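Weekly puzzle thread! Below is a chain. First person to post its structure in token form gets bragging rights.
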Amino acid sequence: MTVSRYAAKPWLALLTDAQRAPLDPAGSLVHALRRAVSETPDRVFLAYFDGRLTYREADELSDSVAGHLAARGLERGERVAILLQNSPLFVLALLGAWKAGAVVVPVNPMYKSGEVTHVLRDADVAALICSDRAWESYLRDTAADSPVRIVLTGCELDFQTRGDTRVLAFERLPQPPDADDLTTVARRGRPAPENRAPAPGDTALISYTSGTSGTPKGATNTHRNIMYNAERQRTGLGLPEAPVYFALAPLFHITGMVCQLGACLNSAGTLVLAYRFEPGVVLDAFAEHRPHYTVGPSTAFMALAAHPDVSRDHFSSFRVISSGGAPLPPALVEKFRAGFGPYIRNGYGLTECTAPCASVPPHLEAPVDEASGTLAVGVPGPDTVVRIVDDRGEEVPFGEQGEIVVRGPQVVPGYWQRPDATAETFPDGELRTGDIGFMDPEGWLYVVDRKKDMINASGFKVWPREVEDVLYTHPAVREAAVVGVPDGYRGETVKAFISLRPGAEADPAALAAYCKEKLAAYKYPRQVEILPDLPKTASGKILRRELRSLTHDN
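Winning reply:
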């Protein structure tokens, strides 16, 4: 029997004693909340513009939400969909649903009616908690064609009085007769139902993800999955007592849910919320709340760096800044450090492994692969094994490219009611990520690109990430995305979509020539198109598929 070279975990030598310590976290984030209430009841848990909620208040308010759901007939194990932005309402709805023994289905507020319908039906959702505006604009009709029987709506102006019009430029709507008001329910003072506290192995979330292709599937994140990564964040980041987290990533996304809300709650810290990402609002919140930690996509840091009012002082309170959810170009890391001080720490994870499975430890900096220019995404934790395999599932040597597969306590059991997809993606409990990467002999992991995004130009493989990383070294480039487009001679050719930094100028031919100087002839983009902004998901990931469809439409 061949011994796995990756099972030896060479990355352990890069970790500190605290980071190497094995973890077996107990309970759930509900238990973490109650622990915080017993130890620091009057500490601020949620800060939302000028509003504050202590741990005691959040516990009592979410108890009442749980009591209401139970009184309305919600049974243990039923599904509660939450479609809200980053506000206290999201947190109270989440904790209330878990206290009622429910499974939470986080839904992207940017989803259209058809996408929401699929989620509500597929997860057999019993209760829907959403904003009053979404309910009135399209969710009432959407929910009517679903199993939903309990509806709570909320106004995200609640729990603050500042009303920052940059993000809160809307008015409270009259309470609809077919839904209960979430804030009123929370303030009613109902006790949570007894004997419904979640067990570690219970499903906590059904997190919908497209995975490698096809219709979105629901990854079944357990409470144990969440607690493991929340505890790994707490022990590994080295933040001060009573840390302040800023929720840069949306809480409905697994990164925001685990690395911000979960880690903060597990650390009895303060979570700063700002509704949604708007660079000026975020910078003002940094100055007001002086956070120690945040995590977000590289595109968010590009937008912050480009804001006319940004300064080094905005980032002076941070102990650790992490990036996840989108590729992090090495040039951005160095530009950001030169301009503002902090070193952005890369990370890698998927919904199916409950956010991170590799990250850059706070005492180290990620190396850059000399051959490809790729920045390492980090190293796995001590309880995780990351391997690189070929198309037959056989391990490849260190330094060779293949598919990244992950085994560890953060990997979900499978997909909701999808046994075939579960068997394909999680053979023997190991996650096949669909990402191409490699690992060096020290244990640093590098992600090259998505398997499905590889461009075949005249028989040569071109990975978009490599071309994008070169484009980010150009001083005029703010955002870059590379896709393959049909070509009568080469089969596919490389096309780059670019947005420029404020005040910068560059023409497509010059950008193509810049890449030609730094890349092999078959890799540089034959076509370059400049756009005002590139399309992104709510979590900040650039949507290559939309750019491909844009090309086809033309």
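Puzzle host: Confirmed. Bonus trivia for everyone else. The mean pLDDT is 93.
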